[in-house]
Amino acid sequence: MSEAQNTVIIAAAIGAAMGVIGAAGLFIYQKVLEKRQSMMMRSNLDNMNQRILELQAELESLRLQQNQQRNRKKRAVLQKRFPANGSTYTATDNDTDVDAFSTAGTDFDDDEFYDFSDSEIGAGDNDNGTSEGVNEVDSMLASLDKQMEMKAPPKDVHTVLQNLANLHPNNVEVIWRLTKACYNCSSNTTDMDTKKTYILEGLKVCEKIISTPNANLYKWYAILVGLHGDFLPVKQKIANGHRFKEYVTKALELSPEDPVLYYLLGRFKYEVSALSWVERKIAATLFSDPPSATYEDALSDFEQSEKLGTEPNMDNRLFLAKTYIKLNRYQDAFPWLTKVLELPATDEEDRRKQDEADLLMTQYSKYR
Fold it and tell me: Which residues cross the membrane (predicted)?
């Protein structure tokens, strides 16, 4: 073998070795980056949790101050109403003396007596930090949205939102995100009891403020209603489906360009189309106008979802494929199954969907 050939072979060997080392180095570097990113996300979530606990303590202190202030104002109002005739005694509440007046011998009953108007007590009893507090919550929510997009550990995000919801139980922006976090946690476990616990938690917090018109609240409530159906007998599951459609429709009225809502509506129509004869009979006894739909109806919604979506939706693409299969349009199904398999799987639920897509590819391979 000539020296020139040896040189070429050595150079090739060095190049190959460098390539392997480079690939290994890049892999290790990527893992280090992922670990560092995960640590940063956990640190950010821990900091938010700490701040929420501080806010809870501040809020309790503020409530105590407001109660004391309101008691002083009530005393002043009572003294104004009964300057001379009322008999007084001193009662202590939270270490604050309040003059209490008897209504005996007056024209006031107890309900009327304690019905102080806002003008008398002071309608503007908002603390000076309210605006600042709202801005801080908004900032936390924006940060949590980013954490969820970056696939932060679902349980960590859930804990932060749980604490935030305790602080702001009627804040619809907090509550729908907590509901979403419950969904993420339920999707990230294979244990059915744990899954059910998260679903029920999300439903409970939603139902407390479900009268508040909000597209995201309705959307995530509907999603959990749908998931809850997996734990119910047929009759209740069908009733749940009706409630699912009700809130998806309400959400669409408020947010008609949301691709996820069209996917959810398509899912409802797909499931209705798949009902057995027995299930249809049960639905007919439950509702004067039982739900009805076809696979063509479902396909239309899935296509609309794909059209409106700015990012690929694995669920929607899987159900596009499944609907084409139900319509015996196998050739149209394969491109969507391929697209499902090409997407990155970020959790157990994604891997389950890809396993299903792979199984369908194998099952209907003769039609390719």
Answer: 6-29
Q: How far apart are CA 256 and CA 55, in angstroms?
A: 36
From its phi and psi, is residue 348 left (phi > 0), alpha (psi between -120 and 50) or beta?
Answer: alpha
| CA–CA distance, 70 with 309 (Å, rounded to integer) | 52
Query: CA-based angle 109:112:117, to the nearest 5?
Result: 160
Let me know how long the chain is: 368
pTM greater than 0.85 (yes/no): no
> Which residues make Cβ contacts (< 8 Å) with residue 134, sequence separation at least 6?
none
Rounded to whole angstroms, how far apart are CA atoms 261 and 238? 19
- Rg over alpha carbons for the chain, rounded to the nearest Å, is 30
Enter the tokens of residue 213. Answer: 């018109």
Are 334 and 363 in contact, with CB atoms under 8 Å apart? no
Q: Which two tokens stand for residue 19?
A: 């390539």
Quote the tokens at residue 110: 């107890």
Instruction: Work out the angle at residue 42's Cα, subtended by the Cα atoms of residues 40 and 46, and round it to the nearest 5 degrees.
Output: 115
Amino acid at 114: Y
Rounded distance between C-alpha atoms, residue 319 and residue 337, angstroms: 9
Amino acid (1-letter code) at residue 278: V
**Backbone φ and ψ of 92, nearest 5°:** -110, 125
Q: How many CB atoms lie within 10 A of CB 198?
A: 24
At 365, the amino acid letter reads: S
* Coil, strand or helix at 214: coil
Q: What residue segments make up the domains of the chain, in order of their start? A: 3-118
